[in-house]
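Researcher: Quick test of sequence recovery. Tokens follow.
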């Protein structure tokens, strides 16, 4: 994590967006930081994407997360609120999740000062960040926090049971496999050993799926998380919720770390097109 923070220090200096740090207080009194990414020439009030980075709930964000969010901001013409939440194993669920929920609350409360249109706010994240985004969307619905316009889930973590075909078969794939997936859940839910069902919002694939917003769900072919993402897409559709699926092929978890790959370029185009449609009802800015 220290090395990743050092890398991000240099990446932040090269971003082509305005980057402003804001202190936010979680419900338990913890103070953390969010970064507002504002692209040049943005018309305000603008839509916003509240984004939660991946990393197995334990690793901090990397340069890839910042660069991807820079593209989302510029090409989908939105403000990205990037959340630096608490990490396990030192601070397992619900600490980081509470930060993520507080970040959405803060964004909606400060929308006017931030130049954000509160009617066009989405949540999103990759991997563990996808779990946080989906859980926050469910809690926001339950608490009538606001009408989110979308949830944007990239190869999301969703189900602590780890019993799907992909979550049991892919024990030797690169980057993320079935064994690391199970170890992650044990660490993240260490305050709730053997709890069944898990605490609310921790494993959002098992949560209540009614009245959720337009959803983007991206999966990777050789990823333990693949099937739970596909299952979530189907379950949302059964609730009458519009879902945009992007089931990428010949890919592993975190494949977009290969930024120059054609597969990554195609996935990024699909992501940005979804955000542009959700925010503006139109194609992405070229």
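Model:
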């Amino acid at each position: 994590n220290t090395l990743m923070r050092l890398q991000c220090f240099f990446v932040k200096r090269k971003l082509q967006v305005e980057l402003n740090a804001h202190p936010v207080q979680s419900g338990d009194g913890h103070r953390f930081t969010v970064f507002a990414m504002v692209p040049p020439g943005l018309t305000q009030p603008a839509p916003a994407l509240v984004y939660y980075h991946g990393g197995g709930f334990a690793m901090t964000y990397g340069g890839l997360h910042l660069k991807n969010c820079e593209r989302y901001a510029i090409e989908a013409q939105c403000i990205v609120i990037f959340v630096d939440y608490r990490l396990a194993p030192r601070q397992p669920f619900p600490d980081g999740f509470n930060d993520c929920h507080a970040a959405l609350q803060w964004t909606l409360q400060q929308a006017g000062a931030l130049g954000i249109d509160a009617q066009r706010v989405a949540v999103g994240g990759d991997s563990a960040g996808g779990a946080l985004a989906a859980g926050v969307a469910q809690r926001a619905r339950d608490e009538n926090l606001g009408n989110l316009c979308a949830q944007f889930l990239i190869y999301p973590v969703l189900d602590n049971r780890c019993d799907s075909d992909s979550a049991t078969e892919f024990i030797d794939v690169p980057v993320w496999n079935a064994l690391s997936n199970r170890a992650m859940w044990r660490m993240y839910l260490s305050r709730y050993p053997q709890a069944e069902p898990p605490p609310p919002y921790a494993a959002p694939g098992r949560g209540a799926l009614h009245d959720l917003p337009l959803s983007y769900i991206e999966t990777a072919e050789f990823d333990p998380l693949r099937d739970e993402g596909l299952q979530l897409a189907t379950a949302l559709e059964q609730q009458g919720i519009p879902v945009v699926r992007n089931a990428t092929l010949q890919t592993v978890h975190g494949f977009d770390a290969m930024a120059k790959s054609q597969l990554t370029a195609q996935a990024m185009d699909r992501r940005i097109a979804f955000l542009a449609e959700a925010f503006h009802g139109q194609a992405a800015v070229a």
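The two ends are 34 Å apart (CA to CA).
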